[in-house]
What we know:
Layout: H1 2-7, H2 14-22, H3 25-61, H4 79-85, E1 161-163, E2 170-172, H5 187-199, H6 204-215, H7 221-234, H8 236-247, E3 251-261, E4 264-272, E5 277-282, H9 287-293, E6 302-305, E7 318-321, H10 323-337, H11 340-359, H12 366-386, H13 405-415, H14 417-420, H15 422-425, H16 448-451
Parallel strand pairs: 3-6, 6-7
Antiparallel strand pairs: 1-2, 3-4, 4-5
Helix pairs in contact: 5-7, 10-11, 11-12, 12-13
Amino acid sequence: MENEKQDAIPALTDKHLASIYDDGKNVTISFMRFLLDKLKIQDEAIKALQIEIKDLKSRLAIDSHNSSKPPSSDGFKNKDKQKQKGKRKKGKKKPGGQKGHKGSTLEMVSNPDNVITHKVNSCKKCGASLENIPALIKDIRQVFDLLSKIAIGVTEHRAEEKDCCNCGMHNKADFPDDVTHKTQYGDELRAIAVYLSNYQLIPYDRLCEFFEDIFNISLSPATLVNSNQICSELLEEPDAVIKQKVIESDVVRFDETGSNIASDLHWIHVAGTEFLTYYFTNKKRGTIAIDEMGILPVFKGTAVHDHMKAYFLYTECTHALCNAHHLRELTFIYEECGQKWANKMILLLLKIKDAKEKSGRQKFRPEIIQEYEREYKRIINQGLKVNPPPEISKEKKRGRKKKTKAGNLLERLEKYSRAVLAFMYDFKVPFDNNLALCSGFQNPHDSLESIKKHVIYVFAA
């Protein structure tokens, strides 16, 4: 505080200023230089604070519609924010099922399990008996419900024992290979447990309560872990088949998401096509995990992914970038930074996507591709004019000067234009990577041993 007081510009009255002036030219010049130096320092401080305020405002403005943040992180927004966010045009259709839409309501069955006939015994008006009058059935309604209380059935296995009258050998019948204990749970029950645990992501404690409440059996967390382990072992062969089929595919989507496994952060890596999905868990997110997963290092097709740098280290394949990420980032730059080029790029990408879907062809004609490429470059150049690269400082300072969000995105769109427009060049390549979704584990009891790194939500009996 003492240094700040010493460096601050003193509060000068007219008398003080007149005294400095009377002391001569040199004193006046020195004082003016002192003031100019202080103003320069204050100006730099103001600019730094303005940048910091702008950065903080940008962070506050980030949500799921203009970044990769999940919708659950949005929280409550003020009215202005909601209006800004709701740029989607209001549809003309009324709520509910549309005309011509095939509904998914219950269909009546021809052979119901139970039939209850509600009789008419007397006239509702005069009270006369109607028991001897033949009845007509014109109105029928069906109720779909459980036939009885859900209950566990117990199958008892009995092994006969006999002594051979010829040699005297004592013989005992063999139990089935999967019947190994005095009491145990069957495959159907364990299949439901694995499904609810891994696909519906119900924590073990709550799942034990479910079996207690619905089936009236006391299932332990250890039994659930054991069931997951058995499932994992049974799936090793189909897991290997899926992995090989993914490697041989023309286009594969890659993604990764963080997950809590055994109370520790892990990453669930996914590689998938429209019909196959391969999961792999690892504590690492980058090349170490990708190498251990064993798909990208040998993949020869087109890899669709976000802009994580680790993906670009694999050069045997062609790369395509997810444009859903780009649209969100461009939305942020247009809405929060007011840069019109970003909106033009959004409209261009969606225009190409729409033209591709409506073309009815296997690919665009060369002249159409060239026109889209020229428009793409024009927009990039407009963005570069608004966001020139940072000036190289003459002063020797460590590190590179920080770029803006818009500058970073422009650099990516320019450098990786082939990957951004891959969906335009090859119609087999999707516009975005939204199909490659990972479902993370939230169960604190899960462990790498129980899912054996390869996570597939199926139980093979």
